[in-house]
Amino acid sequence: MNIVCLGGGPAGLYFGLLMKLRHPEHKVTVLERNKPYDTFGWGVVFSDATMSRLQVADPVTASEILGAFNHWDDIAVHFKGETMRSGGHGFCGIGRKRLLNILQKRCEALGVELVFEAEVDAHADIAAQYKADLVIACDGINSKVRSRFAATYKPDIDERQCRFVWLGTRKLFDAFTFAIEETEHGWFQAHAYQFDGDTSTFIVETPESVWKAAGFESMSQEESIAFCEKLFAKYLDGHPLMTNAKHLRGSAHWIKFPRVICDQWVHWDTSADGRQVPYVLMGDAAHTAHFSIGSGTKLALEDAIELADTFERVGHDVKGMKEVMTAYQATRSVEVLKIQNAARNSTEWFENVARYVNLPPQQFAYSLLTRSQRISHENLRLRDDKFVAAYERFMASLANFDDSAKAKSTPPMFLPLQARGVSLKNRVMVSPMATYSAVDGLPGDFHLMHYGARAVGGAAIVFTEMTCVTPEGRITPGCPGLWNDEQQNAWARIVDFVHAQSDAKIALQLGHAGRKGSTRRAWDGIDMPLNDIARDGANWPLMAPSALPYMDGVSQVPHEMTQADMDAVLAAFVSAAKRGAKAGFDWLELHCAHGYLLSGFISPLTNHRSDAFGGALANRLRFPLAVFTAMRQVWPQDKPMSVRISAHDWVEGGITPDDAIEIAKAFKAAGVDFVDCSSGQVDKREKPVYGRMFQTPFADRIRNEAGVRTIAVGAISEADHVNSIIAAGRADLCAVARPHLANPSWTMQEAARIGYTDLNWHKAYVSGKRQMETNFERAAAMAAMSASPAAAKGEN
Length: 796
Ligand SMILES: Cc1cc2nc3c(=O)[nH]c(=O)nc-3n(C[C@H](O)[C@H](O)[C@H](O)COP(=O)(O)OP(=O)(O)OC[C@H]3O[C@@H](n4cnc5c(N)ncnc54)[C@H](O)[C@@H]3O)c2cc1C
Ligand SMILES: Cc1cc2nc3c(=O)[nH]c(=O)nc-3n(C[C@H](O)[C@H](O)[C@H](O)COP(=O)(O)O)c2cc1C
Description:
Radius of gyration: 30 Å
Number of helices: 31
Strand content: 15-25%
Structural class: alpha/beta
Shape: globular
Helix content: 25-40%
Distance between the termini: 37 Å
Low-confidence stretches: 789-794
Bound molecules: flavin-adenine dinucleotide, flavin mononucleotide
Largest sheet: 8 strands, mixed
């Protein structure tokens, strides 16, 4: 094959040498516009895991790189005069120039033709000019090939919010260093690491608004560097900051990071000599991942490995080209997306440093270390168990929990939480889940068994499913209610059972279905109007803030609520809250999420009113807040109240996470103790982005921006998730829903899995405790024996 790499960065050089190494018969040419050994940049970092991959691909290059590496294990976070240091992270730093020199030398030794000072024109017919069978478009972040064939690649370029500058210094940092400093205009952060014997990279970053307020737009390059030297003087020990972008004037060397995603990675072009030749994107041309997770060069090298391996698997000739291209894109795009998701979390964390500055410095550092959600609590423990143990002791002190006499520190998931007069034994809550098993709103034996089993299952608090304040406020005929004495007594039986048989608390969730009412039980057709009239009776009339059906042409059209309707609904909520208090519930939650009646008032998609209850968010909140306030007045003062909200409608024009901050602030002012941060189910057009802990960022933002305690929910399915969320201060409680359908004792099981043995089990079940713990201990020992150290450390 005749292969041309357009661009002599890490991607082009490494792919070139891998192909030549495996098949010397191929002709490989790398075209690079710079002179040899003439490049921009300071140092780049790799994790130990990346090094293991390079070792397999080409041991010679890997050992050269290893020899030139500056290796370190620690991350140090400097914040508000304190330094938090954790070890075991396993990074290597190398100068970009040094890396390119190693790759260039290896290319030359293997017979790759390197053509320097070869500026390739944006419209050059490379395939015809070089008789190429394959063109690798590895021309970097501003790729001309990508622009030329943009109609095929469909690049999505998102310019991020921060300005940053890539500087160097002779100050040698002995850890990967984050320094966060405040100015009168806002926060600046430095990311610094040593990459060779006498130089460190020093990146300074700040939100563009802060950068502008500090006057950077009109500063010369010298002035802006002097500003950074002064701001970070205590970390530089008198060493100046250096730039290698002298050619750039004024503020031009402060850039905004462009996040690049391409829909397609391969364009088939017809060359002048009539052949169909693939132009395949690789490295920064195909994708970028924010520098704060140090993955740009790693991704470029791994692209090269994947394409070379695919040729090896499918056949390294022109015949298999189509198949190779398809397989390469399919595999790499998924891998890259995972890194880009982690990079997005990390980017957003640094864009919003101001959100976290009120956390205690230790927690600020923990939040920073776990910002990408790729490093979890247990993963940190693997890296540095002493750091995690000390941090757990610190978390215990925050929770006023004295575990100093115990040999082992307490995982954050099992720290107690005080809410008004209610003490929760840990941070797990059984999330509200409809069971559609009531008759005439009456909870029965099923509910006693269901809630009872979950109460003895180890969670600190069990929430009831949405319990409806009127018969017409039910979602389905199977939904429970709390509008009469019989229901109150039935709930009291369940509450009493929970209190007598467990040390768990029980919360009542009250709601009204609004326009989503009068539908079938989920298993008969979720959200569909009733159809089994003989069994369920006729559909009942619906009310909502506006006369808009949930599903056009399918759902019943509700009538627009009048003032009298609102008065009656408010009174029903107050009456149910009083009954809940009489039944002995420990906690009350008002359901203002998922498109039900009160949520319907809050979202602009469902509230089109022109009176005082419609229009601006403050108006749309008026009725839900009135209901909350009236309930708070009758609900015992020593018992907490939470509100569940949809923090994101996931629909253009709907509620956004920014709105959710305002909603949370309004409920906080009305006296809410916790905001339960769910999302969606308001509008059928929603496009949620699912994933592990996918709604936790809402709880994080609300907790740290609105200053109110939060409950995180959504795809939280392991103790490790709970520990990471609580430890980082992203939420105060974790609601776990579906895992509790499969396993009422989810908390007992997760405690045993992570080796936490202090959880109380019901005395009738205690004989099973030690056995479960032993089984998990054995499984963990087996897993440890088969895991490689690099895999354990993972990535940064
Ligand atoms: C501030 C900052 C910090 C970073 N830190 C890290 C880090 O810690 N770790 C890490 O792994 N990565 C880091 N990166 C990212 C890293 O630099 C890139 O992701 C990596 O170099 C991508 O390799 P590449 O081969 O795809 O592109 P590049 O390295 O950009 O190479 C592209 C090459 O193509 C050449 N070229 C472009 N157009 C033409 C043309 N028309 N004709 C001829 N030649 C052309 C260019 O001169 C260049 O040599 C950082 C980036 C920035 C901006
Ligand atoms: C069967 C089922 C019924 C649900 N019913 C309710 C409900 O009554 N009230 C409520 O606020 N959320 C309800 N939810 C949403 C859950 O409380 C939770 O927010 C959601 O399932 C995401 O958490 P998970 O990923 O742990 O399942 C329900 C979820 C399920 C699966």
